[in-house]
Design a protein that fits this description.
single chain; about 325 residues; eight-stranded mixed β-sheet; five-stranded mixed β-sheet; 8 helices; 15 strands; binds 2,5-anhydro-1,6-di-O-phosphono-D-mannitol; binds magnesium ion
């Protein structure tokens, strides 16, 4: 019995993107080649992560603090630079905006023709890196709207519907890439022997409800009473189980496959929570919605949220339709 069929074996990521667009138009070629470069970044990061513990100086802190006020890890910096280098000379991506860079990074030689911007979180869940637990990368592709003459990339301050593509790479026991271009959600496993991402599942639909709730309960007393009430509810009812890994991509992947809800609400000190819109919650919101799930700030669809700055944070409730609705019912019950 063959291990898996040759057809599936041959559905690589770039071929899949082209099939999705059903054309060999320049736009389809562009998107396929951008996805291919993201995949290359994923492979380079996966390789580094798998060897980092054996290398000298690959793990730990750089000693710097990023624009978010967080200590930068060497892997954050490596992964940030990997995305920049794979897009140099691509001719496609003119700007990259990341969690680790205060301002967008321009690749001037691409800018005359490259109208695409890559938004990304190079290493999501950095606290897991040094202890060899799962981490991820999150990405979204947007098209530049109008001229960006002042180099401030103001056109990125728009809602999530402007994302042409979004997804994430999960560096777990295997490396998995999940993406959408607005035509369903698809997952690919990295076959290390081929060096290719091979199609695993097409048109993933998440369950309407799942048993998992995923939140950092260490913040319990920082949350609004309504969120505390929701948590009390799941504690007191059968059929819920808590899972929180400290890496959003891993927690969301579990929820995508098995259902449930992830929440990072605002707190008394940080009403917008921790997670950033443009390269964390908006791409994941697009994935959730495309898979039949929901994504809310608690007040509105994450996809509708218009940021006022590049590193805008939003509270986030992401997951199965019924589970997100249950959280929202507590939030709306102001009494
Ligand atoms: P990072 O991108 O700097 O690693 O931050 C994002 C991470 C998410 O992956 C995770 O869900 C969250 O921050 C964990 O934060 P906390 O330790 O406050 O629970
Ligand atoms: Mg992050």
């Amino acid at each position: 019995i063959p291990e898996y069929s040759l057809d599936r074996d041959c559905t690589t990521l770039s071929r899949h993107v082209l099939q999705q667009l059903q054309s060999f138009s320049p736009d389809a070629q562009d998107l396929s080649s951008i996805m291919n470069r993201i995949a290359l970044a994923g492979k380079l990061i996966a390789r580094r992560l798998s060897r980092a513990g054996l290398m000298t100086g690959a793990l730990g802190l750089t000693g710097d603090t990023n624009v978010q006020g967080e200590s930068v890890k060497k892997m954050d910096l490596y992964a940030n630079d990997v995305f920049i280098s794979v897009f140099k000379q691509s001719g496609l991506v003119c700007r990259l905006a990341s969690e680790e860079m205060e301002k967008p990074y321009y690749i001037p030689e691409n800018c005359p023709i490259g109208r695409y911007t890559l938004l990304y979180d190079p290493i999501d869940g950095s606290s897991n890196v040094d202890i060899n637990l799962n981490v991820g990368s999150i990405f979204a592709i947007r098209q530049q709207q109008g001229e960006d003459s002042d180099g401030e990339a103001q056109d990125l301050l728009t809602d999530g519907s402007k994302q042409i593509a979004a997804g994430y790479i999960l560096y777990g026991p295997a490396t998995v890439l999940v993406y959408t271009i607005g035509k369903g959600v698809h997952s690919f496993f990295l076959d290390p022997s081929l060096g290719e991402f091979i199609l695993a599942q097409e048109n993933i639909q998440m369950p309407d409800h799942g048993s998992v709730y995923s939140a950092n309960e260490g913040n319990f007393w920082q949350w609004e009473e309504q969120i505390r009430d929701y948590i009390r509810y799941v504690h007191r009812h059968e059929g819920y189980t808590g899972r929180y890994s400290g890496a959003l991509v891993g927690d969301i992947h579990r929820i995508l496959m098995q259902g449930g809800v992830f929440l990072y609400p605002g707190s008394v000190d940080n009403p917008d929570g921790k997670l950033r819109l443009l390269y964390e919650t908006a791409p994941l919101a697009m994935i959730m919605e495309q898979a039949g799930g929901k994504a809310s700030t608690g007040e509105q669809r994450i996809m509708d949220y218009i940021p006022s700055k590049l590193h805008q944070r939003t509270p986030a409730i992401l997951g199965s339709r019924k589970d997100v609705d249950l959280v929202l019912s507590f939030i709306n019950d102001k009494g």
